[in-house]
Give the backbone structure.
Amino acid sequence: MSKIHPSAIVDPKAELDSSVEVGPYSIIGPNVRIGAGTVVGPHVVIEGHTTIGKDNRFFQFGSIGAAPQDKKWKGEPTRLEIGDGNTIREFVTFNLGTAQDEGVTRLGDDNWISAYVHLAHDCQVGSHTIFSNNAQLAGHVHVGDHAILSGYCGVHQFCKIGAHAFIGMYTSLTQDVPPFVLVSGNPAGQRGINIEGLKRRGFTREQIDGIRAAYKLLYRSNLTLEEAKAALLEQEAVLPAAAADIRAMREFLGSATRGIVR
């Protein structure tokens, strides 16, 4: 029995694994590739040069791979790439990349994307993230693994959010957020580290204590950013159990382009 509903429209040039399910009234364009085990619900439109991996589930009324909402886009064959094992809920909008960046919007593996989420052109989202309802990313935003974005938060274009960071509800984010840091408010302000998230992901007491110490150096020691980076480098040797985590924070500071929430 076919797993494509008779009312669905799948372009003959689309490449779908034989196990892919497509629900009623969904539309799949000619440049779409979908891997094994993926389920596309009803009334979903997947278009553009879009590649989707295995075991994803798309709920109803999503718009996947539409043209970027960017006046500079002139029809270039830019892409959207989605990994494996993602849950993508109702009314999401994921746009293609633009030629002014890498030309691709990416979503990694095992992400939970709630209803009404927007991933704009050229966003790069890692794996194991959680986006609550109405979290909105402008263009060129980078989000690290295990980050959590709460409902109705908005992220300015070109911002970077580090791994394991937590963005609170209704936050207006216009600067970068280092790994492990919890921010909230409008404008956003730092509120500590994402302790509960780290505990749930199996971080040891020594790791969490080291991350907390690094946070205090960065936010509570009255150091300039350059002084804080130097102090973090010294701290890697003093706290070997958390050295990799402290290094991640220090390296993030070196790559921040919009300044950090501080």
